[in-house]
């Protein structure tokens, strides 16, 4: 004998409640930032070492970014890089 309660057809057709997957959202945000930053680096007159120095990050982080190793960079690091390069490209 089963102790499970019987389910009617309506309950079985309802999708399970959704909860936001923060890891996916975080990854999407980092991916967007990575694309923006790599384009900015391409048009910047600054070298990669100079960008890393101004952003206060090790050169390895720039290498990771350009190699697409997004898991090595946090959102804060990416935002710092973007601010650094945006500041350089913004006319006075």
UniProtKB/TrEMBL annotation:
InterPro entries in the record, alphabetically? HigA2-like_HTH, Lambda_DNA-bd_dom_sf
Pfam families cross-referenced by the UniProt entry: HTH_37
According to the entry, every stretch annotated as the HigA2-like helix-turn-helix domain falls at 25-82
Q: Which stretches does the entry tag as region Disordered?
A: 1-23
Listed SUPFAM superfamilies: lambda repressor-like DNA-binding domains (SSF47413)
Protein name as catalogued: XRE family transcriptional regulator
**Native source species:** Halomonas koreensis
**Taxonomic lineage:** Bacteria, Pseudomonadati, Pseudomonadota, Gammaproteobacteria, Oceanospirillales
């Amino acid at each position: 004998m089963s102790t499970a309660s019987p389910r009617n057809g309506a309950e079985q057709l309802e999708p399970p409640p959704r909860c936001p997957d923060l890891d996916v959202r975080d990854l999407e945000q980092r991916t967007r930032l990575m694309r923006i930053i790599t384009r900015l680096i391409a048009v910047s007159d600054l070298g990669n070492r100079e960008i890393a120095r101004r952003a206060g990050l090790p050169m390895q982080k720039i290498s990771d970014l350009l190699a697409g190793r997004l898991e090595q960079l946090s959102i804060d690091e990416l935002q710092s890089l973007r601010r650094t390069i945006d500041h350089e490209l913004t006319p006075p």
